[in-house]
Structures are given as C-alpha cells and as structure tokens.
Amino acid sequence: MDLLSDRLSRIKPSPTIAMTGRAATLRAQGRDIIALSAGEPDFDTPLHVRDAAKAAIDAGHTRYTAVDGTPSLKRAICRKFSRENGLDYTPSQITVGTGGKQILFNALMATLNEGDEVIIPAPYWVSYPDMVLLAGGSPVIVECGLDQGFRLTSHALEAAITPRTKWLILNSPSNPSGTGYDHAALRALTDVLLRHPQVWILTDDIYEHLVFDDFQFATPAQVEPRLKDRTLTMNGVSKAYAMTGWRIGYGAAPEPLIRAMAVLQSQSTSNPCSISQYAAEAALTGPQDYIGQSRLEFQRRRDLVVAGLNACVGIECPVPQGAFYVYPTIRDLIGTTSAAGTPITDDEAFANALLEETGVAVVFGAAFGLSPHFRISYAASDDQLTEAIVRIRRFCEGCA
C-alpha cells in the first residue's frame, strides 16, 4: 500500500517558492544573490496596525474566534466593500481565512466535482491550476499573449465555456503580468457570462490598491450587479498593507457558498489567528494614507525596471498597470547560448542560467503558463533593482 495519496500526484510544489528557496540556499553558501522572485512588499506593516496587534495581545484576545472570522472584522470588511467598491454585503456573506490562498482553496474544494472545469487565463498565478486539480476539477487554460496585453478577450472566454464550466478565475491586476482589467474590459467579459448562468466568477482582487497612472480598478460584481449572486470576490490585507506574514484574506459571496466554505474551514485550519484579525480590522478601518505612499513608490520602481529591461538586448518589457511585477518576453534570446556556455532553450533555462551566472533570481514564465517570459518582482530596494538590471543586461549581451 502506497503511503501518499493519488491526489498529491496531481500537483507540484510552487515554482515561485522553489526559486526563492534556491536563491536563499545559494546566499547561505556565500553567493551574492539578488532575489527578485518573491511576491511580497518590502515595506514594514503600518505602525497603527502593529499597535493594534499589540493591544489585542495585552487585552487577552488570544483565544479561538468564530471559525471564519470575528463579527467585528466581518463588519469592517462589509464597510470596505461598500466604501471602495460600491458592493453591499452582510456579515453572513463574508468569510475570513488564513490568507487569500485559503479563500480560493476553500471555494474550489467546496464546489468542484470530478470533471468540473475552471477557466484560467494564462499567464496565471502559479497556484490556481494546482488548487483546481487538488479539488478534482479540470483547469482549462486560455493563453492570453503579449499581443492581447495578457488579457482574456470576450471571444476567447466564449470559446472556452462548455456545459462543464463551473468557475472563471480572474486576477486584476495580475500576478505575474501586472495587467489590469478596466471597466470596459470587464464589461465585455460580464456580457458573455450573463449568457452562461452555470458559470461562477472567482475574482482575485488582492492587488486592488496597487494600480498606477490613470488606471481605474473595477471588480466584476461592481461592473455587472446581476452577476453578484454567482461571484466570489476575494481580497486581503497582505499586499496593500504589507501584511503577508499576518495571513489574513477574506471573501464575499452568497450565503450558501460562505456557509459551505465555513464547514470546510472548520475541519481544516479552523479560525485565522486572532491577533492577525484584530490587526486586519485596524488596517481596514484606520488611516489609509499608507496605501497611496506605497503605490507611488511601487510606480517609481516599475518605471525604473521597465526602462532598464527594455534597454537589454533581446528583452521586451511591457508596462504593467498594477501589482509589483513585470513579465518581459525573451523570445529573441531563445536559441542563443550564454557566455558561460548554457543553451537558452526556453525561459526555464534562461532563469536557471541567470541565477547561476549572475546571482539574480527570477521566475521562469512556464511556471505561470505562458512562455517565453520571466517574472521579476520589483518589491526590492533601488540599489538591488539597479544592480539586478546591470547584471541582466550583461548576461543578455553575452548571449550569442
């Protein structure tokens, strides 16, 4: 009898975590490594949020809470949706989990049966397909290339829908591309979805506040209220408030789905960390000036990185609308050989050679379902980003 379950064979470890771990190992060996593979802000959590957590500890809020979130945090989340998105929810339509990933996982585990299909535009966050597979569903990957601005079109969505389609996953702004769907782009998709009542929408809005220039964020249930009753809107505090380690995500959806997700959570993690919930409440209800400050800093870094990469031989880097990633193409470098003799056969070979030969850690595009690209997280200092660009430029110049 095998020890491991068959379902485990359907999935693989996260490539982003694997690359970050590999970079850490090389650094521990004494190598000069610039790691641009992890997707988390490099800023401190706002002071008032940290103070709220300390106060919660001192007040004794260290016991179990309701399985899927404290009533006060759920009320704060309802106010957030009303204030920022024009969406009205009651606390019974809110769920809180240990990070946004658990919200997505719970929803898919609670709803998918064997053979149910989930449409996932590529490039995608690495965990979407594996969570679908673990839940017994079938990922339907729709490639959205550079010529489409990395966006799913209404025609491609229509063509991908079948009688077995249960979910469409949308992420805007996107990890890894930073692409955003504005109101018009979402309207084109929601018009299609109105014609297919069996399809639910799972929208990952975790980068909502990290948008640049004149881009205006919108979310599907806001654009088309008639879809609200089959939409799970997921968000969290990790990216907007630099709270990745606090592990708080939340979602809003119709009550039957929220109740089903709570049942699942009650038999897995149970409640999120009580202290983190009080911190998240402070983040959502307290001063919001931190968001604007971090947004401007990320936009400045974006411009630095995009300009630097576009000056590299063989690299084309589009300008993202949000998040803190760029997703350049290296199609002109495929088939070359690095200065150290490594054949650049694909984007994984490029990323591995770049790390080994220059000490710059990036994530290869195949991990996100679309090649030949690579992802850089510019949640790093100016010095690190500038030096990384210098090393990447030298590496590309050495490819022939």
TrEMBL record:
Query: Could you name the domain of life of the organism this protein comes from?
Result: Bacteria
Q: Which InterPro entries match?
A: Aminotransferase_I/II_large, AspAT/PAT-like, NHTrfase_class1_PyrdxlP-BS, PyrdxlP-dep_Trfase, PyrdxlP-dep_Trfase_major, PyrdxlP-dep_Trfase_small
Q: What is its EC number?
A: 2.6.1.-
Q: What is this protein called?
A: Aminotransferase
Spell out the family assignment given in the record's similarity comment. Answer: Belongs to the class-I pyridoxal-phosphate-dependent aminotransferase family.
The answer on whether this UniProt entry bears the keyword Transferase reads: yes
Known catalysed reaction(s)? L-aspartate + 2-oxoglutarate = oxaloacetate + L-glutamate
Q: What class of enzyme is it?
A: transferase
Protein's organism: Paracoccus sediminis
Q: Does the keyword Nucleotide-binding apply?
A: no
| Record domain Aminotransferase class I/classII large: where | 32-392
How would you summarize the oligomeric state and partners of this protein? Homodimer.
- Gene Ontology molecular function, alphabetical: L-aspartate:2-oxoglutarate aminotransferase activity; pyridoxal phosphate binding
Transmembrane residue ranges: none
The record, for Pfam families, names:
Aminotran_1_2 (PF00155)
Q: GO:BP terms for this protein?
A: amino acid metabolic process
